[in-house]
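hey m, so remember when u said the tokens were messed up on ur end? i reran from scratch. heres the input so u can diff it against urs
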Amino acid sequence: MLKNSTIIYYTSQSEQPEFEQKVIDQINLVKGDLPVISVSQNPMDFGENICVGDVGRTYLNAFRQLLIGCEKAKTKFIFTAESDCLYPPGYFDFRPLDENKIYSHVNTWVLWKTGNDKYYHKEQTHAGMVYGREFLIKFFTECFKGWLY
């Protein structure tokens, strides 16, 4: 297992609680010895929790929560994890090499509940990325200028 990575789990906690608990249980099952930092809008018992309060469900808040988790982590790399994705065995075994590259899992399938319940292949998702921690902190800090700082 990779020892220089942390899983950053960020959530608005807007999923059905039973479903989100299944996601958490699955991460615990497959994460090996990787540490987890959860950044949530209500306190939760998952890894090292940072509660940001009820800030709402937006992409800006999701990325801000991810940044907060990155700032807390001390490892070279971070795996992103979200409350609406199930991670298969072996997923967190990936070993990134370059801290200045973005690694994306490309075998992602999405179930859209639209009355036509079908799985669709999705090329990439923020829930399936691996980043160099310092790279992502610098990127988000620059992107958020004028928004958060």
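this time it looks ok to me. Residues 31 and 40 are 19 Å apart (CA to CA). if urs says something different then somethings off w ur setup not the seq
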